[in-house]
Design brief:
By secondary structure, the protein is α/β, with parallel strands linked by helices. Helix content is 40%, strand content 20%. Strands 5-4-1-6-10-7-11 form a 7-stranded mixed β-sheet, with helices on both faces. A 6-stranded parallel β-sheet has the order 13-12-14-15-16-19, sandwiched between helices. Strand 14, helix 11 and strand 15 form a beta-alpha-beta unit. The protein is elongated and about 80 Å long. It comes from Candidatus Odoribacter faecigallinarum. This is Bifunctional cytidylyltransferase/SDR family oxidoreductase. Keywords: Nucleotidyltransferase, Transferase. It holds the Pfam family adh_short.
């Protein structure tokens, strides 16, 4: 029997958070939920045990019940040291024959099935298995503040988890370790290496993406890696059949990306309604107009599954030469309009557990000359999406944001003129990624759409 032991006893002090790092939210779920999901769905894992800080046991119980995991059989109390958590699992399964324990850090949520399966299969031949990736930097050994030695980097690797063991092997290693007054432990393979030196520890090739959430800076990288992983999964889909019969509302759907989203969704059997100033006089700067538009669709169809807002205004001028009318218009459409669409969509998406999609621009990461209003409003889109994604997660509403590279649209042509089309995305390409995002299972993400041709 293969038991995944999820080690979640940490308190996250280095993350500088009020909650343990395993409860940090990314892509709509806590880190530990993402981690357990992978093991729950792996066919070689028979059972899951979670080792928790006792102070958060009730929180973990709620998470297990909410997710309906069938393999989570034990919630165990850990201790102040990491090895106490390992010991809790070892003793919980003591006396059972044919058990393999696969220890994994709860805060490595990007573990994949390939690594899990190779770890489990290696236990058919070895009693202890580690996972590691090559060291890419030169490692130095120091004495005080001075370099002592520089080991040969070709022989060095960086350890990860999972680490797998035959139950009898890891239990015996710890039995001997606990008799040693000078025992110190950072990981379970280290215990086997020191106290059962005759055991050979096989090493499975890990993944650079199998990172551990430790410091605050790691959370930003983790966000981006989840985004990239989600899209690699979606790229395997060759149709949008799930859209058939769904009700989709597009604001700004008269031309450009919005029009392509509408056309592509209609072609897949979705019921699509478009609203814009040029199409039917709907201005998202007016909350009442947005409300009336959505209400008309709800009365016609009985529900709304998806709302997409592509409406935006761009005036590419220095701030000092921009008219106050243009300044107000950009804020009203790009910022207040977004808020209006979200507020008016909430009751309908709450009912359908639907999806809301906004658009930012690559200029959101850095304000640039001639873009002061446009880039600042697009930066606001990102912050707004991430915030309401967390606020609305309890109602099952997913909110995401598309960040396309330079795209050929009427708005861009108006501001930049004729450009080499080989350097631009098409509105159709962005629309395809937009619909894939609507069909994906994540929230609070900024989805980069890049030119690949």
């Amino acid at each position: 029997m293969n038991v995944a032991v999820i080690l979640a006893g940490g308190v996250g002090s280095r993350l500088d958070s009020s909650h343990p790092k395993q409860f940090f939210k990314v892509a709509g779920k806590t880190v530990i939920e993402h981690t357990i999901d992978v093991f729950e769905g792996n066919g070689l894992i028979d059972e899951i045990a979670v080792v928790m800080n006792p102070a958060y046991m009730a929180t973990m119980e709620e998470i297990v019940l909410k997710n309906g995991w069938r393999k989570v059989k034990k919630l165990l109390k850990g201790g102040s040291e990491r090895y106490f958590s390992s010991l809790a699992a070892i003793e919980a399964y003591a006396g059972r024959r044919g058990v393999n324990l696969i220890f994994h850090d709860a805060v490595r949520p990007l573990i994949n099935n390939r690594v899990i399966e190779e770890t489990v299969r290696a236990l058919e031949h070895w009693n202890a298995v580690d996972v590691a990736v090559p060291a890419v930097d030169t490692i130095i050994s120091t004495e005080g503040d001075f370099v002592d030695t520089i080991p040969d980097r070709s022989r060095l690797k960086r350890g990860q988890t999972p680490q797998g063991f035959k139950l009898e092997t890891i239990r015996e290693a710890y039995r001997l370790a606990l008799q040693d007054p000078g025992f110190r432990s950072t990981d379970d393979c280290g215990v086997v290496l020191k106290y059962l030196p005759e055991e050979r520890i096989y090493v499975v090739k890990g993944e650079e993406s199998n990172m551990k959430l430790t410091y605050k800076e790691d959370s930003y990288l983790l966000d981006k890696l989840f985004q990239l992983r989600s899209f690699s999964l979606q790229e395997q889909e060759d149709s949008f059949e799930e859209l058939r019969g769904k009700v989709l509302v597009v604001f700004g759907g008269s031309y450009g990306i919005g029009a392509e989203v509408a056309a592509l969704a209609k072609g897949q059997g979705a019921k699509v309604y478009c609203f814009s100033r040029s199409l039917n006089g709907v201005d998202i700067a007016s909350l009442e107009e947005v409300k009336r538009s959505l209400q008309s669709v709800a009365e016609e169809e009985g529900c709304i599954d998806y709302v997409v807002n592509t409406a935006a205004v761009m005036v590419r001028e220095p701030l000092n030469s921009m008219s106050y009318e243009d300044i107000c218009r950009m804020v009203e459409v790009n910022y207040l309009g977004m808020v209006h669409v979200a507020m008016a969509s909430f009751p309908y998406l709450k009912e359908s557990e639907g999806k809301l999609l906004f658009y930012t621009s690559s200029s959101y990461t850095r304000g640039r000359a001639f873009y002061s209003l446009y880039s600042s409003t697009k930066a606001a889109v990102v912050n707004f999406v991430q915030a309401i994604a967390q606020e609305w997660e309890p109602w099952g509403i997913q909110v995401n944001c598309i960040n396309p590279e330079r795209t050929k649209t009427p708005m861009r042509v108006k501001n930049f003129g004729i450009e080499n089309e080989a350097t631009l995305l098409t509105a159709r390409e962005v629309a395809e990624k937009s619909l894939k995002t609507l069909l994906a299972d994540f929230t609070g993400q900024v989805i980069d759409v890049k030119l690949n041709r």
